[in-house]
Design a protein that fits this description.
Layout (H helix, E strand, L loop, with lengths): L1 E4 L4 E12 L2 E9 L27 E4 H8 L28 H4 L2 H11 L12 E2 L6 E3 L5 E4 L2 H17 L15 E4 L16 H10 L10 H7 L2 E5 L2 E2 L21 E4 L10 H14 L3 E4 L12 H8 L2 E6 L1 E3 L6 E4 H22 L6
Parallel strand pairs: 1-8, 1-9, 9-13, 10-14, 11-12
Antiparallel strand pairs: 2-3, 2-5, 3-4, 6-7, 7-15, 11-13, 14-15
Length: about 375
């Protein structure tokens, strides 16, 4: 199994988002996850620059004058002397909440309705997040970098998906297969995974429990436990490449480099789920496809992040290993990864699916 997450730090539109100031149309947002929010606003950042996420983080959607010209209307702001109230006419039907077109800028609701193929009046409510729409691109002096939003963690989601697909390219790929090849891409990792769609839910255990009783031994009451005992989970989440401007923040002998291979993450305090048998297994998987690997631990005087690996290892009791491709500027609105590492990740996961059943029984712990 390979587990990854699909969410990234972003800005989510508030239930009442309609704001305006100094001639600008603005949108009220909530911060989702631990983003580097200063990279999302149009200011040259100085080392001393700080801002308040509640009072100074309002994305600009347009100009009030331009919206008035578009709609052919006159501005009718809400003021104490001229309040905009719910159900101004006694003939209007009662609505427990203000309409979406009152809580949000009208044009934004119209754009949502247009995308959904319905009328603005049909939009009762919505959940909307803002994100960088600029496409990913290749750059660097020798085209060695990928510049893209949300590499963490769409990068590993992509590698795991393509690796699974490639492992099934041959018509006879499953002829001798004893295992089920599975990837699980979760939401809400950036906010703790404590949701119905998160890795700390019962979603994956429920799927595995149902899969475990397929086949001839459907009357086996311990089929689920036996399946987990012979299973292995790769927790795939992007890793931190060494930054040459802050190299002192990295442990001297564990400085992952971009385009030098996928990074195995290790932590003595179980912030990552990796252990020695897992390292042995993933080495053999990588050897089959000549995929380079790197090792990473944090400094003892530095805090360590975590992934979905430890929580899934605890809930499943399955052997688990944490790894990911190295990148810079994690959680910025624009992140940087290595071109070659995409191929490394795909090949590693393809080899994992192809060779796990053969290798699983050969890893012994004395």
């Amino acid at each position: 199994m390979i587990g990854a997450h699909t969410d990234s730090p972003t800005l989510r539109v508030k239930p009442v988002s309609k704001k305006q100031a100094e001639g600008f149309l603005q949108v009220g947002v909530e911060t989702y996850g631990g983003g580097l929010w200063h990279t999302s606003i149009h200011l040259d950042r100085q080392e001393t620059f700080t801002f308040n996420k509640e009072t100074q983080l309002f994305p600009i959607a347009g100009l009030i004058a331009a919206e008035l010209n578009r709609s052919g209307q006159q501005l009718n702001p809400r003021t104490p002397d001229n309040p905009s109230t719910l159900n101004e006419s006694p003939n209007e039907p009662f609505t427990p909440l203000k309409l979406s077109t009152e809580r949000h800028h009208l044009y934004m609701v119209e754009l949502i309705a247009q995308a959904a193929g319905v009328s603005s009046a049909s939009i009762v409510d919505f959940e909307l997040v803002l994100y960088d729409t600029q496409k990913a691109c290749i750059g660097g002096l020798n085209d060695e970098f990928i510049f893209s939003a949300r590499l963490d963690n769409l990068g590993m989601g992509y590698c795991s998906t393509v690796g699974l697909i490639n492992s099934l390219a041959s018509p006879s790929a499953l002829d001798e297969e004893r295992s089920i090849r599975l990837i699980s891409l979760f939401d809400h990792e950036e906010i703790g995974s404590e949701t119905a769609q998160g890795a700390n839910s019962n979603f994956l255990p429920s799927v595995i429990r149902r899969l475990s009783v397929l086949g001839p031994a459907t009357d086996n009451e311990t089929a689920y436990e036996q399946s987990l005992a012979s299973s292995f989970l790769v927790s795939a989440d992007m890793a931190h490449s060494v930054n040459p401007n802050y190299s002192y923040k990295y442990e001297n002998d564990h400085k992952p480099e971009m385009n030098k291979g996928t990074v195995i993450k290790i932590n003595a305090n179980a912030r990552y789920a990796t252990n020695s048998p897992g390292i042995v297994l993933i080495q053999e998987v990588a050897r089959r496809r000549k995929v380079p690997l790197q090792l990473f631990v944090v400094r003892n005087d530095s805090s360590c992040g975590s992934t979905i690996g430890p929580m899934l290892a605890a809930s499943l009791g399955a052997r688990t290993l944490d790894l990911g491709n190295p990148q810079l500027s994690m959680h910025s609105i624009r992140e940087t990864g290595g071109v070659d590492d995409v191929g490394h990740g795909v090949n590693l996961f393809e080899s994992f699916f192809e060779h796990y059943s053969e290798l699983e029984g050969k890893i012994f712990v004395d």
